[in-house]
Amino acid sequence: MNSGALDSRRSIFVRFLKFGLTAWGGPAAQIELIRRECVEQEGWVSEDAFRRTLAVYQVLPGPEATELCIYFGRLRRGRIGGLLAGLGFMLPGFVLMLAASILYVEADLADSLDELFYGLSAAVGALIARALVRLGRVFLTDAWLWLLAIAAFALTLWTPVGFALVLLAAGLLYELRSNVGRWFGTAASLSPAPLVALVVAAGISLPLTAELFAEGLKAGLLTFGGAFTVIPFLQETALSNDWLTESQFVDGLAIGGILPAPLVILGTFVGYLAGGVGGAVAMTVGIFLPAFVFPIFLHRQLVSVAENERLRPFLLGVAAAAIGLIAAVAVEIIETSVVDAYTAVIAVGAFLALNRWHGKLTIVLVVLGCGALGALVQLAGLV
Questions:
Q1: Averaging pLDDT over each range in 192-196, 202-206, 332-336, which range is the top one?
Q2: Mean pLDDT of 295-322
Q3: Rounded to 5 degrees, what are φ and ψ at 91?
């Protein structure tokens, strides 16, 4: 490993700002970008150390690409370096999404660009379906985890049970199944108090800006398994509070898909439509706050948690349930965005393209291509 001299604060910020400006392609492409420069080119940590660190952030809450940037910034310049690295990585996406959100509302893009969003929306279901395949391969490694994911899917789609309760129950069930002998012989291996507190806090009435911050924080704390798991949490929050319609939420996902940004930047769109610029800032800060706090202040403890054999089953159960939640949201989004045979063909084609090609700009090109195809279909008078 090349430790070298500490980097300057400016160089840390500029390096990760560059990452943020080129962070197209979703979490996998962003992680590969970080690995290539920080591990292969700079040699800040070994490949094995990078894989172990990534494994920690994949299991624990938060967008793993952002957390990796903060981890490396902290490694090179302490806590202030972690803060600057995280800000550099997320600021371009925040500024672009805020600008897009303002334009979406003020220019009424949903109506004026209806032909474009017809195809863009069809691509969103394909993006989420592709994410489900990737997450399933990583986390659904035995029959019990599959059953928990299916149960979470069914409960989310057909019952009013809140997502926090679904996650808590799945974690406890898999913990019980894995550590049943020790549950009755010793104290429980973890306290569910943080999740229970979130469930209770969900019912507290707050001013709108504070509520947006609280909902963003809740999403940031419960995005187990990677950035895609923020989707069901934001969807439930946005729709249950009448901040967005289903079609507006899908439009926000489509816009996020073409920006160089972590997927959780969707919170900026939701926050703006709910409460203007102040709401966008509040929800964005809430969502990203855990991603900053964990690597900067709690990295060693998180490594211990992720590698603790008694705690890991709980986290895996929660991650499996989160996949079920994403699947339920995917069904609802597909029902909204796939409205005829043409959008069905576009969505299937997008899914196949995303599975076939994995380049840095694949997601951007697929989403924009779907938008163009949808516009052509409508301009040709086929719908």
A1: 332-336
A2: 79
A3: -65, -45
In angstroms, the CA 76 to CA 1 distance is 12
Is 188's pLDDT higher than 80? Answer: no
Q: Which residues of 227-244 are buried (b: 16+ CB within 10 A; e: fewer)?
A: bbbbbbbbbbbbeeeebb
> For 43, which DSSP code?
-
Token duo for residue 137 = 């391969």
What tokens appear for 76 in the block?
Answer: 């090179």
What lies within 8 Å, CB to CB, of 202 at 6+ separation is: 162, 164, 218
- pLDDT for res 232: 86
3-state class (DSSP) for residue 171:
helix
Output the six-digit token pair for 242.
């009448």
Structure tokens at 146: 């599959």
- What are the pLDDT digits (tens) for 3-28? 555 788 999 999 999 999 988 877 87
Find the DSSP H helices in the chain. 9-21, 26-35, 47-59, 64-106, 109-112, 114-139, 143-158, 163-183, 193-201, 208-222, 230-240, 246-257, 266-297, 299-307, 312-337, 341-356, 362-379
| Section 124-138 average pLDDT | 87
3-state secondary structure of 63: coil
* Whole-number pLDDT of residue 265: 93
Q: In angstroms, rounded to a whole number, what is the distance separating the alpha carbons of residues 166 and 145?
A: 13
Cα-Cα-Cα-Cα dihedral sign, residues 245, 123, 126, 66: negative
